[in-house]
Amino acid sequence: MKSFLPLFAAALLSAPVSTLLAQAVATPATPTPPPPSEIVELSPFTVDATRDTGYRAENTLAGSRLNTPLRDTAASVSVFTEEFLEDLAITDIDQLIEYSVGTQLDVQDSNAGSNANNHISGANIVRRLDIRGIRASESIDYFRSITPNDAYRIGRYDESRGPNGILFGISSAGGLINQSSILATTNRDSGRVSYQFGSDDISRAEIRFNKVILPKRLALAVAAVDQENGGWREPDFKDKERLFATLTFTPTDRITLRVAGERGNEYFARVAPYALTDNGLAWLDNRNARGVAAVTFAPTNANPNAARQALGVVARNANANNARRLVYINNDGAFYDSAGTFLTGSYDNPAVRAPDGTPGVSGETIRINDPSFVAHAINSGGPGMYRDQNFENYTFTFDWRITNDLNLNLAHNYQHTDLTNPALTGADPQLRGEANTTLGVGGPVNPYAGQLYIDGQWLNSDHVASVKETRLSLSYNFDPKRTWLGTHRIAGMVSRSDERVRYVSQRLALAGAPFNDDPVNPANRITT
Fold it and tell me: Which stretch of DSSP H or E encloses residue 306?
């Protein structure tokens, strides 16, 4: 998809009109101005985070896309400085929004169903945000971001609340959180090393340094992070390896070139936000009351009769005469056709009876919330449910101060990400009882008969996306001689973007679709 967006913005900055009073005093000597080489002229399209003081920021690009004092910005903007991020050990936007106003993660909790959160399924490349309950956007250096966020390379975050960002082509109606990358500065060397550790196996190391190669002309900044974090659930992991570098070159006092690039990988566990579906507790209660032999049977491709349904054996897993249900057992690698075998259920079925004769009641899906069966600290998705994402991000900017009042900025950004995200979806994973004494109809002896097991069908999401954008901006400061006319800044921007996305969901199935022309037909699928 290609889009061509001509954008135009104007900002008026009022200048106070002062009255000069003549006084009969001696004229003081005019101080000698500093040499031109000591004066640093900032581009109106850039904000240098190193000029922030403590938690206080003076300027922002969030209001008008121009370097504007916050006091003159007619928008609701909050700036989170580098020192603020360091003091609170904030490493990403998920943690940052705890200190913002009206911002929260969009987990699609207003939608019904266990598949509502598209970040868990891999449909979303980056986490989505809501500001004031409305969809918001993320950007990096005011380019749309498809790169996972992390503070190791960030000089500051700017949060603009409300639809102001729509005027400049990069924001949703809710607002925008922009990540401003660190800049290589040509005036001094600097560096830092940090390490975080804590409960739940938190381990994170960061390094950042700035090296002046040619004073006031050429500098290099590098940042890197290595993280191996755990979580309170098991299994849970949040591993990162990322490297960022940026180069600043000022061949003349009027021209600045910057090049930045990042490559990295993030490997996260996907924690299922729901407990196991109960399809076995009624069978388990009867097993404990009557013994294993009373609730296990040799499958014959017949539906369970009323007596077996009362014990919690409620259904047949397809008709073996015209269907296949392929199962892979992770414990020992066994692979067999379970069509015609028995499936257990629970108390959401009126045909089921508890050991004391109490019937089940039809209703909604039952989830297991009893830690004596499955501890709350267990991730029901298991180690096979993860998010593996590789990405790269490159930016080039060219700033030219043509005259004292006319400035030009040319910028280009390219991002690419490749995401693999296997996940259990729908009602899976499910807890069932093994009511079959053989593996399949007429198969070998089932060593797991009478035990509980977890099963589900995997959905593997491959999400590849790339976006590149080139933009040209001009800014002109109009300062008429008549002070009552005020001062004015006029800006214009032209941007061209190209976005490409490939999103494919895959089921675990037999190669070649041997049993049905549809590769993901239940006859070809594999349940684990």
Answer: helix 306-310
Cβ atoms within 10 A of the Cβ of 57, count?
22
User: Per-residue pLDDT tens for 32-74?
Assistant: 554 444 444 567 767 766 677 777 777 676 666 666 666 667 6
CA distances from 251 to 45, 189, 212, 257 (A): 19, 19, 14, 8
pTM, two decimal places: 0.81
What domains, with CATH codes, occur in the chain?
A: 2-17+42-181 (2.170.130.10), 198-273+388-422+466-483 (2.40.160.40), 277-366+427-465+502-528 (no CATH)
Q: Where are the beta strands (DSSP E) in 270-405?
A: 277-279, 313-316, 326-328, 335-337, 342-344, 386-401
Which amino acid is located at 432 in the chain?
A: R
Q: What is the DSSP string of 19-63?
A: ------SPPPPPPPPPPGGG--PPPTT---GGG-BTTB--EESTT
Rounded CA-CA distance 177/80 in Å is: 10
**Residues in Cβ contact with 91 at an 8 Å cutoff, skipping those fewer than 6 apart:** 150, 151, 152, 196, 204, 227
pLDDT tens profile 86-101: 999 999 998 998 998 8
Pick out the chain residues at pLDDT < 50. Answer: 1-29, 31, 34-40
Identity of the amino acid at 137: S
